[in-house]
Amino acid sequence: MDNGRTMQRPGGRSARVRTAVHAAALELLETHPWEELSVPLVAEASGVHQATIYRRWGTMSTLLNDVVTEWSTTTASLPTTGSLREDLHFYATAVAKSLEEGNVPLILRAVVMEIRPGEERQVSAAFLERERQLQAMLDEAQERGEPTPTLAELLEMVVAPLYFYALFTKPMPEAEAARLVDRLLDVVADRAPAPAGPSA
Fold first, then answer.
1. What is the CATH number of the domain that holds 128?
2. Does the pLDDT value for residue 88 go beyond 60?
3. What is the distance between the alpha carbons of residues 111 and 103, in angstroms, rounded to a whole number?
4. What integer is the mean pLDDT of 55-65?
5. Which of 41, 58, 75 is the last residue of a domain?
6. SS (H, E, C) 38-102
7. Cβ distance 161 to 83 under 8 Å?
């Protein structure tokens, strides 16, 4: 079940164009430094006319952000198992596995390279959508009566380390990603009030 947690994708020709352009951008990232990428290069590799790419995305930066949005909102879908621990294990290990793919760290590093000192940072649409999905997971767990972390705790203790390792060292193994979840839920359990004893 997706519980409305996935973004709608355009259909027909629009979807085919997006798929072809995204695939070309990813292939080019594997063979070219980010600074060398351009709309003409993507157009040649994808078979999509430059005018179409400029009309839809405008710049390579916007195109790359769309690639990231597509990847992050369609990779590691969020399950509904009836257990928050199982849901988070599934999610964290799926993210860890996807981050081992060669082109994913390249995409993330290219996004980081787009940051310009002094410019106001815009929150990524991919990040906002993933936040929404994760919050829905937490809300469902809370409704079931499970001890539940805040979204900020989940991002700081599970999501952020996964991406930090992928960007700056080596991607985190799936088993370690699962342990991040266990540590988070241990923190939540430790602060949960003890059940009330029998009344005298």
1. 1.10.357.10
2. yes
3. 13
4. 87
5. 58
6. CHHHHHHHHCCCHHHHHHHCCCHHHHHHHHHHHHHHHCCCCCCCCCHHHHHHHHHHHHHHHHCCC
7. no
